[in-house]
Amino acid sequence: MSAPDEAPSEGYQRVSVALQRLGHPHAPVLLELPARTAREAADALGVSVGQIAKSVIFRRRSDDAAVLVVTSGDKRVDERKVAALAGPVGRADPDFVKARTGFTIGGVSPVAHLSEPVTLIDRELFRFAEVWAAAGHPKGVFRVAPQELARLTGAPVEDVTE
Known about the structure:
Blueprint: H1 10-21, E1 29-30, H2 38-45, E2 52-60, E3 66-72, H3 79-86, E4 89-91, H4 94-101, E5 118-122, E6 131-134, E7 140-144, H5 146-153, E8 157-158
């Protein structure tokens, strides 16, 4: 699963350290190929698309804060539901995502952001005993139980999908 000849990125290292510091039992791993989409990650891991905990970043209009929604890869985030919980939001461009999180799109982890986002965990993740989340690099992932993900992020579990 790991590509040993590739040096981990700064984001991947930051996620590794954060997971260890938070007492998470599973270290991140590097996949052979990039997994920038939920489908690519699911195919690489041999799991269903729903077991991929995708991170979607929005830009809150009132204060320019990053709003992170972590949901199942087979679901679409409902922007209206997010706005009802976090305030009006809009799409975040790649530069905003990189500046706020320290990660590029396709590798945004739910933990170890440069500046703490407003985070919401979608309840749809709880359909699974275990999910896989990005680990700060398009090839990096880590496995986690949804309950553990909520603990690691300190985020509330909400209904934020269509």
